From TrEMBL:
This is DUF1254 domain-containing protein. It comes from Ramlibacter monticola. Residues 322-426 form the DUF1214 domain. Residues 53-174 form the DUF1254 domain. The lineage of its organism: Bacteria, Pseudomonadati, Pseudomonadota, Betaproteobacteria, Burkholderiales. PANTHER family: BLL3101 PROTEIN, SIGNAL PEPTIDE PROTEIN.
Length: 442
């Protein structure tokens, strides 16, 4: 084999591994760029949705039951304060995550404030100066991070929704240096507006990766990755300037990494034996606090899969919500947008608040573009129920002849993935005495 071909193959291999290693960073940057570009945001602004999300809210696996607030954090100029109000009149939960998406703190009833509200001070790497004593201190190992908050009204009645939105408007973000007199909080409502926060699997994936590498400190466990990155032109302190030939290689590498992530999602272990429903991540995520660092290795494959699929894991997963996902029907065949399917949800779902089932395009893990209906949940009074209280959910590209009440749209001929969420999960879910039937092809 000629030296030139060997060099090319080496770059291809290292580019694929670099993409898998850097997936969490690139996902964080994709959301940040949407904040800056689509929302016209500035650091310490709060993007929120005044209505439940529709398909235009393009981030990884959001729901359409909550009212969201998204706050990108950047501590390069010093600590940032995040004020969380008491969770009164609506449910509020969320997390503070670093640039690797490791949760540093939960907020709300399941978090440090216990639902009573409080000030969280997010510290940059190496910060040694004093902070106010009445704050929850959150040191981050990275300069970038974010908080994704979800506010859930008690019901969908207008008064309850208004209380939930009022709770969102009480959140504050500002510099610790401005704590004595914080500036007027700026909110940006992105309801019904395009918010393109999904990573692109082409050569621009590596532009994003290079940007994040430049902004973040090096960690000892990432030094091998730095050698891989140098092979593809990404090196700390130097501009990333790939020529046309390298960009061609990087495009192919991004496509291959994308295929790896999808294959990994399809291979996740079942939550119940002989069922297709899985947890959305391999156990190593929750077991390591989502650092993916065990005593033997840093599991970049499991980490890449998770942050291709989702974002903003909680520090205490399962305390407020529990997620299940499925890429296959009851027979094990991949879910395809051109077909019609049914899910029978039993009447005794162990969810103290409510349950919801949502459809995403598997190729993006975001809402189905252009979909009229992206989710069905038990809050919806229009949902038709069977005599025993069970609910039959229909999945198809177009609504069935019987009407839209129990229908969720699927993406044409593309593969898709379903997520079933339980809010306020009960004991029978965890001891597995309750189970959810698989999605059936019709």
């Amino acid at each position: 084999m000629h030296d030139r071909e060997l060099d090319r193959r080496s770059v291809e291999r290292r580019a694929v591994e670099s993409a898998i290693w850097g997936m969490p960073l690139v996902s964080v940057d994709a959301m940040r760029q949407a904040f800056l570009r689509d929302a016209g945001g500035r650091y310490d602004d709060i993007v929120y949705l005044s209505k439940q999300a529709d398909w235009k809210f393009q981030v990884t696996t959001p729901n359409a039951s909550s009212w969201y607030a998204y706050i990108p954090l950047n501590t390069a100029g010093g600590p940032v304060v995040l004020e969380i109000p008491p969770a009164e009149g609506a449910g509020l939960f969320g997390s503070l995550n670093d640039a690797w998406q490791v949760p540093a703190a939960d907020v709300g009833p399941a978090g440090s404030d216990g639902g009573r509200g409080g000030r969280y001070v997010v510290l940059p790497p190496g910060w040694s100066e004093s902070v106010p004593a009445d704050c929850f201190v959150v040191p981050l190992p990275t300069f970038n991070g974010y908080s994704l908050l979800r506010v859930i009204p008690r019901t969908t009645a207008p008064d309850d929704v208004a209380r939930a939105l009022a709770l969102v408007r009480k959140v504050r973000a500002y510099r610790l240096a401005d704590a004595a007199d914080p500036p007027l909080q700026r909110f940006v409502d992105m309801a019904g507006k395009p918010f393109e926060g999904i990573a692109r699997f082409d050569d621009t994936f590596f532009d994003s990766l290079a940007r994040m590498v430049q902004e973040e400190p090096l960690a000892q466990h990432d030094l091998v990755a730095m050698a891989l990155l140098r092979s593809i032109g990404i090196e700390k302190g130097r501009p990333f300037q790939p020529d046309a030939g390298l960009r061609e290689i990087l495009r192919g590498a991004a496509i291959e990494a994308h295929a790896d992530f999808i294959a990994g999602l399809r291979a996740l272990p079942a939550y119940w034996s002989a069922r297709q429903w899985t947890l959305p991540a391999r156990p190593v995520g929750a077991e390591t606090g989502f650092t993916f660092m065990t005593g033997q290795l840093l599991d970049i494959d499991a980490r890449g899969e998770l942050f291709y699929f989702g974002c903003a894991p909680a520090r205490r997963p399962g305390a407020a919500t529990f997620y299940l996902s499925s890429c296959a029907d009851a027979g094990g065949a991949p879910l395809q947008g051109g077909r019609k399917y049914r899910l029978r949800v039993p009447p005794d779902v162990p969810a103290q608040q409510f349950w919801a089932v949502t459809v995403y395009e598997l190729e993006t893990c975001a809402f189905v573009r252009g979909a009229e209906r992206i989710e069905l949940n038990s809050y919806d009074e229009g949902v038709a129920r069977n005599a025993d209280g069970s609910v039959d959910v229909t999945f198809a590209p177009r609504p069935p002849a019987g009407g839209k009440s129990n229908w969720v749209a699927t993406p044409g001929e593309k593969p898709w993935v379903a997520m079933f969420r339980l809010y306020g999960p009960g004991a029978s879910l965890f001891d597995k005495s309750w189970s959810l039937a698989d999605i059936e092809a019709l």
